[in-house]
Amino acid sequence: MRTIQLQIPDGIDLKDYDFSMIIASKLYEDGKLSSGQAAELAGLSKRAFIELLGRYGVSVFSSSLLDLESDIANA
Questions:
Q1: CA 45, CA 65: separation in Å to the nearest integer?
Q2: pTM of the model
């Protein structure tokens, strides 16, 4: 895994944990990472990551019609 260093303005009142979760949840939402990969990026278990997604405005469920149809077919 590679490391990226960000310079965050002092006026932004967020903890390092929040930045990791915001980035991980956005990459998950965009389909760039699986839930397991995003959880690892955020430093959480997969279950904890999924439970916290709502706090960051991300749904656990895909908004893609193809994903929904696939989920229904595999249920």
A1: 28
A2: 0.74
